[in-house]
Design a protein that fits this description.
With about 375 residues, this protein is of the alpha/beta class. The chain has two domains: about 5-100 and about 110-240, Aspartate Aminotransferase, domain 2; about 245-365, Aspartate Aminotransferase, domain 1 (Alpha-Beta Complex). The protein is about 35% helix and about 15% strand. It contains twelve helices and 14 strands. Strand 2, helix 4 (about 90-95) and strand 3 form a beta-alpha-beta unit. The structure holds pyridoxal-5'-phosphate. The site of pyridoxal-5'-phosphate has 16 residues, from helix 3.
Length: about 375
């Protein structure tokens, strides 16, 4: 059986360090907003050159705080992609603003920048691109459009730790941006965790209040906020893992290159294409095939755990019925959603396992 993500293999390599670091949290009782979250801010921030970082309780709450800091009003519109996890759009709804979907690019699967301007109205306030699967969205074009129309940008970097575009890390383009440290992500905690990153002092100061009860100090509350803070135990786990993340990212990229080579002789398999100028970090290795469901069943039978990211586009999710979209509104998204399969790509996967998986895919897709 080959798991989709086998976290145990990674744990076996680092368990002594992990246990020692978690022990340190317990010994120091620095459980909340302690030295471990402070250290994580410094380490993760320094590796990327982020001016500000706020460790949060999850990627979803990081998106919530980031979007909340933009100061949206009821009825404001935020342009985003329908081909992503719902966490990118939920906070827009919670803030009484409106998600406005734009179809995706058929090659990169990220928001189609040539269609963004058609969706801008006098109510549009922001654009929320996602670096889907670890492939950077076309941030230079998105920032050009945002500047032209005076819009803010929130990058959803949940899939894309250390991905780059033209030599620059994702999360350094938008005004305020969100990352996820969910256990299955490229850099994963041992529970829910995420972070906000930003180069803007003003947005950072707003977000910093919102995520911690609107505090100025312990009992002075400047705005109504929430408790969306990261636990120090999660920060401790991340502090151990951060030492290995660049090595693990390289392994993911090597695994992806091997799959792509093994599929190169098969014209019926569409392999991932990196954004021009981009460095893809392969949170997911996603191929497109005609008979996706048949392939998934075949691989399952052979003991290979595969997934589908994402089967139902957001514009036709029941939760977003009220927005009035219908099937057929975003044909590229709908076609991609019906054809994509995510293969195991975690760093500890062996070459033999990749060859076995690729052989099974090639033998089914002919
Ligand atoms: C694109 C995207 N954004 C945001 C999130 C939310 O992250 P979390 O699971 O840490 O809340 C996810 C989680 O899968 C995601 O895939």
């Amino acid at each position: 059986m080959i798991k989709f993500v086998d976290l145990n293999r990674q744990y076996e390599q680092i368990k002594d360090e992990i246990h020692a670091k978690i022990d340190e949290v317990i010994r120091t009782k620095d459980f909340v907003q302690g030295r471990f979250t402070r250290e994580l801010e410094k380490e993760y921030g320094a590796m990327h050159g982020f001016k500000h970082m706020i460790p949060c309780s999850s990627g979803s709450t990081a998106v919530l705080v980031a979007i909340s800091s933009l100061g949206l009003r009821e009825g404001d519109e935020v342009i985003t992609t329908p081909h992503t996890f719902i966490a990118t759009s939920e906070p827009i709804h919670h803030l009484k603003a409106k998600p406005v979907f734009v179809d995706i690019d058929p090659v990169t699967y990220n928001i189609d920048t040539t269609k963004i301007e058609q969706a801008i109205t006098e109510k549009t306030r922001a654009i929320a691109p996602v670096h889907l699967y670890g492939n950077p969205a076309d941030m230079e074009e998105i920032m050009r459009i945002a500047k032209k129309h005076n819009l803010m940008v929130m990058e959803d970097c949940a899939h894309a730790h250390f991905a780059k575009l033209n030599g620059r890390f994702v999360g350094t383009f938008g005004d305020i941006n969100a990352v996820s440290f969910n256990p299955g992500k490229n850099l994963g905690a041992y529970g829910d965790a995420g972070a906000i990153v930003s180069g803007s002092d003003e947005l950072y100061n707003r977000a910093k209040k919102i995520f911690d009860h609107g505090r100025l100090d312990k009992y002075t509350h400047d705005v109504i906020g929430y408790n969306l803070r990261m636990d120090d135990i999660q920060a401790a786990v991340l502090l151990v893992k951060i030492k290995y993340i660049l090595e693990w990212t390289k392994k993911r990229q090597e695994n992806a290159a091997l799959y792509t080579e093994l599929f190169s002789g098969n014209p019926k398999i569409v392999t991932p294409k990196t954004q021009k100028g981009g460095e893809h970090v392969y949170h997911l290795y996603v191929i497109q095939v005609e008979n996706r469901d048949g392939l998934m069943a075949h691989l399952k039978e052979k003991g290979i755990d595969v997934r589908n990211h994402y089967p139902v586009p957001l514009h036709i999710q029941p939760a977003f019925d009220y927005l009035g979209y219908k099937k057929g509104d975003f044909p590229v998204t709908e076609s991609v959603a019906s054809r994509v399969v995510s293969l195991p790509i975690f760093p500890e996967l062996t070459k033999d396992e990749i060859k076995f998986i690729a052989d099974e895919v090639n033998s089914f897709v002919r």
